[in-house]
Amino acid sequence: MDEHTLRSLVDTIARQVTAAPRDITLEQARALSEQVRQKAAQMGVNAVVAVSNRAARPVLVECMDDSYIASYDVALQKAFTVVSLKMSTSQLKPLAQPGGSLYGIQFTNEGHIVIFGGGEPLCDAAGNIVGGLGVSGGSEEQDTALAAYGKQLFEKGGIQ
Asked: How far apart are CA 61 and CA 77, in angstroms?
C-alpha cells in the first residue's frame, strides 16, 4: 500500500470515528431536565424527568417536589421505550392498540415498554439517536407536551 492510499484510509477512518453517534452527556441531561422542569412548573405539573443514553440506560432521573411515586418508573420506562423502539411513545400508542401492528408490545421487555405519550427520542444534528427523554406526572397530554418541548429544545441546539 502506498503512502497516499494509507493516508486516505486513515483520514476516512478518522472522519467516521468523529462522526459516529455519541451518547447524551450528563451535563446535557441536566440542562435538559432543568428546562423541562421549569416548563412543568409553569404548567402546574410536578413531573419526573428521566434521560437515558442511546443504549436506553439511565443517565439522569429527577423528581420535582411532590411528584407521584409511580411517575419515577413511568418516566424511566418512557426514556427506555423511545430509544429501544426508535420512536416517541405517542407514535407507538396507536400501533399498540387492539388491531395495531404492535398490539401486545407492552408485555415484552419485562414490561418496560410504555404505550402512551410522554417519551421522545433525542437525536443529534445528523439524526442519530443519542438518548431518550421520559416525562411523567401530569395528564398524558401534559407529559406529551413536556417531552416534545424537551426534544425541540435539544434538537434545535438549545441544550449544550
From this structure: 11
In whole angstroms, what is the distance from residue 94 CA to residue 97 CA?
Answer: 5
Beta strand 58-63 with 48-53 is antiparallel
Is 38 domain-assigned?
Answer: yes
Q: Is residue 28 part of a domain?
A: yes
Contact in structure between 105 and 133 (CB atoms under 8 Å): no
Q: Identify whether 3 is part of a domain.
A: no
Read off the C-alpha cell for 113.
Answer: 415498554
How far apart CA 132 and CA 69 sit, in angstroms, is 21
Q: What type of residue is 35?
A: Q
DSSP bridge pairs for 135: 49
Q: Are 123 and 155 in contact (CB under 8 A)?
A: yes
Q: What is the pLDDT along the chain (160 residues), one digit of tens a residue?
A: 677 675 766 666 655 545 567 999 999 999 999 999 999 999 999 999 999 999 999 999 999 999 999 999 999 999 999 999 999 999 999 999 999 999 999 999 999 999 999 999 999 999 999 999 999 999 999 999 999 999 999 999 877 6
Q: What CA–CA distance (Å, rounded) separates 85 from 71? A: 21
Overall pTM > 0.85: yes
Query: For residue 83, what is the domain's CATH number?
Result: 3.30.450.150
